Structures are given as structure tokens and as C-alpha cells.
Amino acid sequence: MSEDAPKILGPLDVRRVMAALPHRYPLLLVDRVEELVVDERITAVKAVTINENFFQGHFPGRPIMPGVLIVEAMAQAAGVLAVESLGLAGSGKLVYFMTIDEVKFRTPVEPGVLLRLEVAFAQKRGSVCKFEGKAYIGDKLAAQANFTAMIADPPTD
């Protein structure tokens, strides 16, 4: 492998995901990383089960994953991509949303599916990163969004 070849990581289990993100149950929405190409893109998975606490109220009799949580799952995948690409896993740095643009929901996400999260860097400038994200059920596009995040230290007390 040449020095110019991209560094590819994966699969990464949930322990490695939790080393990159501060999120924990019930808000950790990335279960596994299938592939991470450093400085480029990530493919991650969220196993959507009927046991998710949000299905109790969204919606009784017709459980559908809230769109904002699909966007959050894409953002968490982006967080893993950014933290791993910048070598910040375990550093305590946080990835904060700055903007969310051009969000589109294409198909409902119901319990019993694997939600595939594909996120790529669109731009990196210092601690600010722009991403393009898509969420799929199989080959069917469920949602997409462009978003910007900032990597920063956590707030102090």
C-alpha cells in the first residue's frame, strides 16, 4: 500500500463507536461502523428495533422512527468519521451541530430494519466540517441531509 492510499478502518464495534462519541443509551444511534475511509467517508449501521423508547409515542399502532433521530444518527456517524480522521478518539472533544440543510425524508423507518448511514466530508476547515449524509434501508433512500458541525471542547462548569 502506498503512502497516498487512503487509510481504511472497519468494521468497528460499538465499543470503538463509544470511544469516539460521548453518546450513550438511549441516545447512541450508531451500533457499528462497516467502513471508515479516513478523511473521506463512513458507512455505519443503526439496528432499529421495537424496543426503542421513542416508538412508545411515535406512533402508537404505527411505529415510525422520528426524522430528527434519523438526522441525529447521520450526525453521530459523521462525528465518528471526524473524530477518527482527526485522531481525537478518547480526547473528550465533542462534535456540535451548527447547521442542518436540505433535509429530505423519503420513506418511513420502521422497527426491524438496519438503517445504513452513509456520510462523507463535503469540506473541512480547521475545527468546522461540512458533511453530506444519507440513510438507507437496503437500497432504498430513507433520508438525506447536509450539515455542518464544529469540533470543540465540552463546556466547563
From TrEMBL:
Record's family? Belongs to the thioester dehydratase family. FabZ subfamily.
Provide the protein name: 3-hydroxyacyl-[acyl-carrier-protein] dehydratase FabZ
Q: Which domain of life is it from?
A: Bacteria
| UniProt-listed Enzyme Commission number(s) | 4.2.1.59
Q: Which UniProt keywords apply?
A: Cytoplasm, Lipid A biosynthesis, Lipid biosynthesis, Lipid metabolism, Lyase
Query: What catalytic reaction does the record list?
Result: a (3R)-hydroxyacyl-[ACP] = a (2E)-enoyl-[ACP] + H2O
Give the GO terms filed under biological process for this record.
fatty acid biosynthetic process; lipid A biosynthetic process
Tell me the lineage of the source organism. Bacteria, Pseudomonadati, Pseudomonadota, Alphaproteobacteria, Sphingomonadales
Write down the InterPro entries for this protein, in alphabetical order: FabA_FabZ, FabZ, HotDog_dom_sf
The record lists the organism as: Rhizorhabdus histidinilytica
User: In the record, what terms sit under GO molecular function?
Assistant: (3R)-hydroxyacyl-[acyl-carrier-protein] dehydratase activity
Enzyme class per UniProt: lyase
Q: By its UniProt entry, which NCBIfam families does this protein fall under?
A: fabZ (TIGR01750), PRK00006.1 (NF000582)
Catalytic residues as annotated in Swiss-Prot or TrEMBL: H58
Its principal location? cytoplasm
